[in-house]
Amino acid sequence: MTGTSADPVQRCRLRVTGTVQGVGFRPFVYQHAVRLGLGGFVRNDSAGVLIEVEGPEGAITELCRLLVDDAPPLARVAGVTVSPLTVVADGRNDGRTRPPEGGSARFVIARSADDGNPDVPVSIDTGTCDDCLAEVNDPSDRRYGYAFTNCTNCGPRYTLVESVPYDRSATTMAAFTMCPACQHEYDDPADRRFHAQPNACPACGPHLVLRGPGGDPWPGWAKITSAAAVGDNPLAEVAAALCSGAILAIKGIGGYHLAVDATSPRAVAELRRRKSRDDKPFAVMVPDPDSARRLVELTDVGMALLTSPRRPIVLAPRRASGAVATDVAPGLADLGVMLPYSPLHHVVLTAVGRPVVMTSGNLSDEPIAYTDDDAVDRLGPMVDGIVTHDRPIHIRCDDSVVRARGDVTQVLRRSRGYAPEPFYLSTPASRPVLALGAELKCTVAVVKGATVVASHHLGDLEHLATYRSFLQAIDHVCHLSGVTPEVVAHDLHPEYLSTKLAAELDLPAVPVQHHHAHVASCLVDHGRSGPVLGIAFDGLGYGTDGTLWGGEFLVADLIGCERVGHLAPTVLPGGAAAIRQPWRMSVAWLLDSCGPAVAADLGGLLDGRADTLVALLSGSRESMPVTTSVGRLFDAVGAIVCGRRSVSYEGQVAIELEALAGQVPPGGVAPYPMDLSSPSGEMVMAPAAMVVAAVADLAEGRPRPEIAAAFHEGIAAATVDAAADLTATRSLSTVVLTGGVFQNARLSGLVEAGLRGHGLEVLVHRTVPPNDGGISIGQAAIAAARSAG
Question: How many other CB atoms sit within 10 Å of the CB of residue 113?
Answer without folding.
Answer: 13
